[in-house]
Structures are given as structure tokens and as C-alpha cells.
Design goal:
The structure is a homodimer of 213-residue chains.
Chain A lengths: L1 H32 L6 H8 L3 H7 L3 H14 L12 H6 L8 H16 L2 H16 L1 H28 L9 H17 L7 H13 L4
């Protein structure tokens, strides 16, 4: 039985290595050539795997890139193999919960600011955002694969704060997520001004406290 | 004196007609062919004016398109001729002020929702948004010509509410504008969900009242 498990563990390890190589290659290539010129062939060549290895796990280049984003964002490449495409890593990921919703939101939003200010992430995310804006099918894929799981993570933390009495019981958590994160995204995408921790902190404080006196 | 004023008024009227024709042509063409293929030649041909007429008033196709957006948004083509490029119409425009900031914000945001749901506006604005996202120079032009004047209009209304004691005295008005409008823009640009008056109303109410209990 031990003999049977060892090779299987070796396969899983190799799968995880390949998977991580594919996602890293996709992320880097998207930054270099843009989404339109990104190809499964190019990703396979850079990752040093066969095209069939990629097609076994992902249906399209968009699906690969979304998982690459999930890996970059959550720091996890998924559980390797299996084709669930990073779903597990999001299931396991969570926003920090120190019991102080304001402090935790600032921690997370500061990390988002740092990500958007990272040139490598900036180019890749900008390429993807542009494609999403004019390709309705890709937008649907993005909504399902990347936006929804990330949104669920955020809502889970907000729900815990709601249950702890730190947020209004009747707060619409989708509206809350949008209020907090959309201004960051617009300021970044339209380059409307510097994206700083100070700005993120002001967003969190104003969204939590409201605009009224 | 009357004889001298009549031809001059005629010229002004013709200028205004040409100006409106150019802006309408730019707006429609952008929706049809996208920003990248939009050209001064194409706009001139559709508007029935010479290229020189356009260059007399605007330095670039981006500048024409921004004024076309201002006309669409404020309903004013500017004061005709003169080359100020629609600046006057924004100066004169104002957000509604009935004395009730919540009701007035809803009125304005409902109008924004209706605009974004208008297929003609959707295509043109999407073309422009995409170009802004990957062209830093155009982003700077957008920030100066379209975003800043529109933002000033919004801040003026918020400042009046602040002075009337309806908004916090220490509220950062730029943060407030972002909290209110950015979620609409992101939901539209990334097609994250239906853009409805109900959603806009929830945004206004949550931004004003805050997320806390």
C-alpha cells in the first residue's frame, strides 16, 4: 500500500509543479503581450509543458489566466491537477479576521493598492480588464471564475462583522463590497489619481461611517 | 447696427449648427467603429464640414469625443464656435438642488443608469473607457476634459449639502464622489450585474448612511 501511494504522491507533486509553471507563464505572458496575443501554445512553451497538459485542466486561455490571478491574489496555486482550476484555493482562503472590521478592511485594501501598484500585476490586470470591457463572453467567465469567488470571500468577512454587530443587520453585502472596492478599481483603471493607502483608508472610513454628519 | 448684428448672429447660428453636427457625428461614429478607427476625416465627412473646421475648434479626435460626451451628458452643445470646446456648457450645468441631497443624488444616479443602459451611449463610452485604460495620454486628457469638470459639478452639489448640514463637515468630497459613482461604472464596465434604479438607490442610501448599525 505504501508502494502504491509513493508514486501517486510523486505524480501529484509533479502535477502541482506543472500547474504552477503554467499559471506563472500565463500571468507573465499576459503582462508582456496582452490578452489578445496570449495563446495556449505560448503558455505551454514558456511553462515547458505540452499543450494537451493545459487543455486537460483548462478549457480556454481565459480560464488559465483567471486561475493565474487567483494564484497571485490568494498565494495558492490550487491543490494541483484535478481540473477544478484553483477553486479549492479560494475555498480555503479567507480575509483576515482580528475581530476589528475597520482594521481588517484596511489591511485587505492596502494589499489591493499594493497589487494594483505592482507593474507586473498592473499590465496583466489592465489587459484582462480591457478584454472584459468589450467581450461579453469573457465578462461572464470573469464574473463566474474570478469575481464571484473573490466577492464571496469579501462577503464572508463582512457577514462575520454583521453577526458581531459591527455592521448594520440590513446591510446589502453586495452593495457594501462595491462601495469599498469599486473606487479603487476605477481610480486605477482610469488613472484618475494616485492610489495610496491614505486614499484606501479614507474609503473604508467613509463607507463605514457614511457621508452624513 | 442692426444690419451688422444680423449677419454675425447668422454666423454664430451656423457655427453652432456645424459644431453640433461634428459632435453628433463623433459620438455616433465612435459607437460604430470604435475609438481606434475614429478619424477626423470620418467625422468631417459625416458632419458635412471640412477637416479644417474641426481642427479650428479641437486639437484631436479625443478632444472632439470628450466634447461629444459633454453634449450628450449635459444636453448642451456649448455656445457654438469659439474653440472653448463645450467648457461653457459644463460651467453652466448643475446637478439638481431641491434641498434634499438624497433625493437629488438619486435623480442624478438614475439618469446615469439610464445613460449607461442606452446602447448608443454604452458602445461609445465603452470604446472610450477601453482606450483610456491602456493609453496613459488619453487618460490624462480624459481626466482634464471630462472627468474633472463632471467631478466639479458633483462636488458643487455635495458642498451645498455640506453647507446645509446634510453632509459631514469633514467629508472628503472626492472620496464621496468616488463612493457614489464608481460602483455604477464598475458594474457597467465589467457587466457584473443588472444596472437598475434599485441598485443606484441602495448605493446612495448606503453611502449616505454608512455600513455600521
Amino acid at each position: 500500500m505504501t508502494d502504491q501511494r509513493r508514486p501517486s504522491a510523486g505524480v501529484a507533486r509533479r502535477s502541482e509543479t506543472s500547474r504552477r509553471a503554467v499559471l506563472t507563464a500565463a500571468f507573465e505572458l499576459a503582462a508582456e503581450v496582452g490578452y489578445a496575443k496570449l495563446s495556449i501554445e505560448g503558455i505551454a512553451a514558456r511553462a515547458g509543458v505540452g499543450k494537451q497538459t493545459i487543455y486537460r485542466w483548462w478549457p480556454s486561455k481565459g480560464a488559465v489566466l483567471f486561475d493565474a490571478f487567483l494564484m497571485f491574489t490568494t498565494g495558492e496555486p490550487g491543490e494541483g491537477g484535478g481540473g477544478e482550476g484553483g477553486g479549492e484555493s479560494v475555498e480555503e482562503a479567507a480575509l483576515p479576521d482580528t475581530g476589528d472590521i475597520e482594521a481588517d478592511l484596511k489591511t485587505v485594501m492596502f494589499a489591493t493598492v499594493d497589487e494594483l501598484n505592482d507593474p507586473r500585476y498592473d499590465r496583466t490586470m489592465r489587459a484582462l480588464s480591457i478584454e472584459i470591457a468589450h467581450d461579453a463572453d469573457l465578462a461572464a467567465l470573469y464574473a463566474e471564475r474570478l469575481n464571484r469567488p473573490m466577492r464571496e470571500l469579501k462577503k464572508r468577512r463582512l457577514r462575520a462583522a454583521q453577526e458581531a454587530g459591527q455592521l448594520a443587520a440590513d446591510l446589502d453585502l453586495d452593495v457594501a463590497v462595491d462601495l469599498l472596492w469599486s473606487p479603487l478599481l476605477v481610480r486605477w483603471l482610469h488613472r484618475e489619481g494616485p492610489l495610496t493607502h491614505e486614499y484606501a483608508a479614507a474609503l473604508v472610513e467613509t463607507a463605514l461611517g457614511g457621508m452624513r454628519p
